[in-house]
Amino acid sequence: MFGTKRKPEALIFDLDGTLFQTETLLLPAYHATFAQLRAEGRYTGETPPERHILGALGMVLKHIWHEVMPEVDESVHRRADELLTAYQIEGLARGEGTLYDGVAGTLKALRDRGMRLFVASNGLEPYVKGVIRTQGLEPLFETEGLYSAGQYQTRSKVDLVKRLLETHGVADAWMVGDRSSDVEAGHCNGLFTVGCDYAGFGKSAELDKADARISRFEQLLDLIES
User: Which PANTHER family match (predicted)?
Assistant: First the structure.
């Protein structure tokens, strides 16, 4: 155990692979991004396999593109940022993208129990806020409680969570996410960590250091009450 398990005043959630089934929105946008890069003459060749971007989820976009297309210029990475975000926002406006089973009901139950709810994501601000808004979850989260690396230009999720805790005066929280970066962000800030073991984006041992693991999002309620 790295964090102490006690009933928290707040929960901080990762977004992709934790609340939101990222691939339902990401993959169509991913293919559209490479089609446009080719049309602009910025990229040649086939679109890299989907596993490359899915395996890199949880990183900041700068590092994701180094994994997906390490051979191209940084300017192409930045254009890919713009395109991917724009296509995902367009997809959200069309009603694309799906939450994991039980997310909406569980978040409402947590809020009804008086928990303060936050998001800390390595994504870009328009994407993070767009997902929460279009999925109808915005009223459940704290005002100004959606934190993204894109908005605050943080170097790591450790720094992002630290900023969130300090800004909102949170003394005791749980960090909930599906990647090792979420576990690290929680432990480095003295938080109890919950690993979400249902997205399948990361390596099998990635959540070994989490203080607890859940295979369905609803199990979070039982974990808090136990």
Answer: PHOSPHOGLYCOLATE PHOSPHATASE
Is the pTM of the predicted complex or chain greater than 0.70? yes
- The confidence band for 4, taking pLDDT boundaries of 50, 70 and 90, is low
Q: Tell me, which fold does domain 10-21+98-225 have in CATH?
A: Rossmann fold (3.40.50)
Q: Which helix (H) or strand (E) holds 119?
A: strand 116-121
CA gap 45, 86 in Å, rounded: 22
Task: Report the C-alpha gap between 97 and 101 in whole angstroms.
Answer: 13
Distances (CA, A) of 145 to 2, 5, 120, 157, 182: 25, 23, 8, 15, 17
74-93 and 61-68 are packed helices; what angle lies between their axes, rounded to 10 degrees?
A: 110
pLDDT tens-digit series, residues 144-174: 999 999 899 888 999 999 999 999 999 999 9
Please tell me the total number of residues recorded for the chain in this structure: 226
CB-CB neighbours of 183 under 10 Å: 25
